[in-house]
Amino acid sequence: MTGWKIFSHSLSMVLRNLGWALQIALVPVLIAMVCIAALLWGQFGELLDNQGRLDYVPSGGLVTSILLSVVIFIAAELWVFVSWHRFVLLEEYPTGWIPKFHGDRILAYFGTSLLLGLVIILAWIVIGGVFTAVGAMLSSTVFSIIVLFIAMIAIGILFFRLLPTLPAAAIGEKLSFSESMEATKGTAGTAIVLFLVLMLVQILLQLITNVSIYVFAPLGLVFAVVSALIMTLVNVSILTTIYGHYVQGRAI
């Protein structure tokens, strides 16, 4: 079951390199948190009167601050993602607590992400439209749901097969969508298993978080933050593993 191997290998990769992961992720995340807090604190402070109640309708300044916060959050995430891809695939170890900021690779990663998102949206319009029409012709709610589910699986497989383009952008290698599709030929079953594993893991983590918060709220919040950070790195490692295995021919 290659899908399970990809997940377990990616999880092991993160757990084996937690120290390096901390060096790669900590400072970008802290910088983003401080900047976002500074942006939003001033705006929300102006919205409150002395009793802590909203005093007036949010202005354009608040909207601008929120948009800037989103940009900062995305930039910090891409900084971490690119650094982690390069750490694993190029053995580019961090030399300090501030990972190198590869601006050109981050922009390439962002651009590839936008193109990937556009392709998935267009595919959903085409595939989803066809399957929706078929479901409507069947005149059955059950069959319509089944057809919609099949369409979602098809989109998920397409998404999986295009994922290697992201790590390629991070390390400066050219990989077109058609080349990515060719490299990942015959991986439909792997994609389905991997997505099922990720879904089950996420449900399990959410369940543990809810129980922890119910028993002892601070512990639950800490677990939620730590598990979210680890799973974020695991998801990025999955992209790295897919690229390494299907494009570079590495063993899992």
Features:
252 residues, mainly alpha, 9 helices, 0% strand, globular
Tell me about this structure:
The protein is mainly α and 252 residues long. The chain has one domain. The chain is 81% helix and 0% strand. It has helices spanning 2-16, 18-47, 60-89, 103-138, 141-162, 165-171, 177-183, 188-215, 217-246.
User: How are helices and strands ordered from N to C?
Assistant: HHHHHHHHH
**How many beta strands in the DSSP annotation?**
0
Strand portion: under 5%
Average of the residue pLDDT scores: 87
Tell me the overall shape.
globular
How many H/I helical runs? Answer: 9
Largest β sheet strand count, sense and barrel closure:
none
Q: How big is the Rg?
A: 21 Å
Specify the structural class: mainly alpha
Low-confidence stretches: none
Distance between the termini: 11 Å
Structural domain tally: 1
